[in-house]
Design a protein that fits this description.
By secondary structure, the chain is α/β, with parallel strands linked by helices. The chain is about 45% helix and about 20% strand. The protein contains 14 helices and twelve strands. The strands form two sheets. Strands 5-2-1-6-7-8-11-12 form an eight-stranded mixed β-sheet, with helices on both faces. The chain is globular. The relative contact order is 0.11. Pathway: Cofactor biosynthesis; (R)-pantothenate biosynthesis; (R)-pantoate from 3-methyl-2-oxobutanoate: step 2/2.
């Protein structure tokens, strides 16, 4: 199987590296040629609790995303793992649109983005693609080509019901089960879920409560629980989002507030992706995370003032011209 990993961040390198180590043919697609050259120069080293994987430089296939059509039109892949952030979805769509129609029709994409909106955007641009959502609790930290598998979690694949109706006649769910088996063989706990939408909303809620506050206060996830003032604002964000979910009839299992605190404890030393973007002066995903909560609230004439405040604060922290 040929698997194309779009994005060379921590999760992209973790999944791509282990898939290649398990015998799959993997191609990495980076935002710039400099990043691709660095991978081919340094290789990939993955450190796990009981093993170390080293993909040597000469074994790496890495290209800038601008060369996607050149390679895909000659040798199409079987699955594409889209691990870029929401902020770079448009760059991927621009390149995917240059593929020939015959190549785009069997396009199979597993999407792991935070927030909402990316599936609809991809569906509009690539109407014949099979779009699969990928939710993972794997933890990884990257330093150049070295990846530390910091946390062992679960990966769930599934079809969003909102898109499934649009894909009638071209969806072959067995292909998703095949991808899940391949990911399992690479050393991940991966299964297929028929309730992926609930998991997407759960992930959105967790990110909307944790990420902006860590970015504002510039603290790792676990420190959110160290002061009652921080916990109080977390709960405000939680209550506002749950009111919106109630209006939408989004029903999630278990005590979500306890789950959010559990994520803070389980990822206590982690730097959230939004904090990392702020520290590196990059555009954040606040629009697709808290912005999604705000958008849904407006549809039901609901007020989410804490989300709106943090949304504008994070947007105001982004320097002009950042990428």
């Amino acid at each position: 199987m040929i698997i194309d990993v779009v994005g060379a961040g921590s999760l992209g390198l973790l999944f791509g590296g282990k898939l290649q180590a398990s015998g799959e043919r993997v191609r990495f697609w980076t935002r710039t040629s400099v990043q691709a050259d660095q991978l081919k120069r340094d290789g990939i080293r993955i450190t796990e609790k009981d093993a170390e994987i080293h993909i040597r430089p000469y074994e790496i296939q890495a290209y800038p995303i601008s060369q996607l059509a050149n390679h895909w039109n000659k040798t199409p892949g079987d699955w594409m793992l889209l691990t870029v952030k929401q902020t770079h979805i448009n760059d991927f769509i621009e390149q995917a649109a240059t593929l020939t129609l015959e190549i785009r029709q069997p396009f199979k994409i597993a999407c792991s983005q935070n927030g909402l909106g990316h599936l609809e955007k991809l569906q509009a641009a690539l109407p014949n693609a099979l779009l699969c959502s990928a939710i993972t609790t794997e933890g990884a930290k990257r330093t150049k080509g070295e990846v530390d598998r910091a946390g062992y979690g679960k990966t769930l694949l599934g079809l969003s019901k909102s898109l499934a109706k649009m894909n009638v006649g071209i969806i072959d769910e067995q292909q998703i089960f095949t991808l899940a088996r391949v990911v399992q063989q690479a050393g991940f706990d991966c299964t297929v879920s028929n309730e992926i939408d609930k998991l997407i909303y759960r992930k959105l809620l967790i990110n909307a409560v944790i990420n902006p506050l860590t970015a504002i206060w510039r603290i790792p996830n676990g420190e959110l629980l160290h002061m009652k003032e921080r916990v109080s604002i977390m709960h405000q964000l939680y209550d506002e989002a749950m009111t919106v979910y109630g209006a939408m009839n989004v029903q999630l299992e278990g005590d979500l507030w306890d789950q959010i605190q559990g994520v803070c404890r389980d990822t206590a030393s982690n730097t959230s992706s939004m904090l990392a973007d702020v520290l590196h002066k990059r555009i954040t995903e606040v629009e697709s995370i808290n912005g999604s909560i705000i958008k849904m609230a407006k549809e039901f004439n609901l007020k989410v003032p804490t989300h709106e405040m943090l949304f504008h604060l994070i947007q105001g922290m982004q320097s002009e011209g950042v990428s």
